[in-house]
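TL;DR need structure tokens for one chain.
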Amino acid sequence: MPVDLLGWAATAVLIATLSRQIYKQHQAGSTEAVSTWLFIGQMTASVLFIVYSALMGSTVFVVTNSLILVTAVVGQILAVRRRKRG
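>> reply
TL;DR here they are.
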């Protein structure tokens, strides 16, 4: 069980980092540096890792990759909205 705590701690750090980056990009007001292909790749990889992790029975990685997928979707939505306004 303590090994899972390492995984959950890593998840918390990673999601906090990704969330902060999305917030910072959104506040910057520019979408020039935001690559649609990065989001497509991130979303595809996350879905594949979710399936893989589920098949391996790893709850930590299913949750982590699901949250990474959510950050990718939120980031893309914010970027698209910003592009439409600009």
